Amino acid sequence: MMQTPRILFFLSPLCAVLLAGCATTQVDAQWSNPEYSGKSLRGESVLVACEAPELTLQRICEDQVAAQVSARGAKPTKNSTLSSAGSPPGATDPYAVAAKRIGARAIVRTTLAAGPPIVSDSGPVIGFGLGGGSFGGGSYRSGGAGVTMPVGGARTTQTLSAETVLINPANGVTMWSGRASSPTNLDAGGQVTELARVLVEAVQKSGML
Questions:
Q1: Residue 90 and residue 78: Cα distance in Å, rounded?
Q2: 46-69 burial code (b ≥16 CB/10 A, e <16)
Q3: Which end of the chain is more exposed for a tag (fewer CB within 10 A), N or C?
Q4: Residue 52 scores a pLDDT above 80
Q5: pLDDT averaged over the chain?
Q6: How far apart are CA 158 and CA 162, in angstroms?
Q7: Average pLDDT for residues 90-119, to the nearest whole number?
Q8: Where are the domains of the chain?
Q9: Across residues 106-123, what is the average pLDDT?
């Protein structure tokens, strides 16, 4: 009995991508200073500052953190909108200087860090399973040999992580700190947006917003 070639579509890489989409940005660790327990910053002025490997990510970060802080009742001022003029010579902490200048009760500083690039297939893999039969006018026989090949080439993604620290500008004491990481299924801007959201949510749950 003649058999025709069997073409199998292996969708495991595609399934992996779909499963990655189920991953969520989450807080990995957080710490609260008991001395500031119950001291909410709602209605208070805060300075929002971000540090990032690129200027674009730094500005996105400030925009997103400021928006999240504002939505929870505080009054944010983005550090990038302030002039550095007026800082005293030898000042070791420009954020503290800026915060005191605008009368901020806290500095909300977020630091972004990039993980190593991850290379993955961007499409499914096609596998050819061959059995005995005829093909192209001739005959062939195979003991179930198969050939697989990727479709679509490789895709490079990169994860981002972030640490947010709330600092009392009056004495430099850390009031709260937390760290979060993001999945690779989001672009860089989407990762920053999600990191800002989950970290500020964590600040709110701690009672400080």
A1: 23
A2: bbbbbbbeeeebbebbbbbbbebb
A3: N
A4: yes
A5: 79
A6: 13
A7: 88
A8: 24-121+155-205
A9: 80
Per-residue pLDDT tens digits for 5-33: 444 444 444 444 444 444 689 999 999 99
Packing angle, helices 55-71 and 188-205, rounded to 10: 30
Q: By C-alpha distance, which of 164, 172, 171 is closest to 208?
A: 164
For residues 20 and 12, the answer to whether their CB atoms sit within 8 Å is: no
The model's pTM: 0.71
Domain 24-121+155-205: give its CATH superfamily.
Answer: ABC-type transport auxiliary lipoprotein component (3.40.50.10610)
* H or E element in which residue 63 lies: helix 55-71
- Strand, coil or helix: 57: helix
Nearest CA to 25 out of 198, 202, 187 is that of 198
Which tokens sit at 77? 């001022």
Which single residue is written with the structure tokens 């500020």?
200
Tokens at 75, concatenated: 């009054």
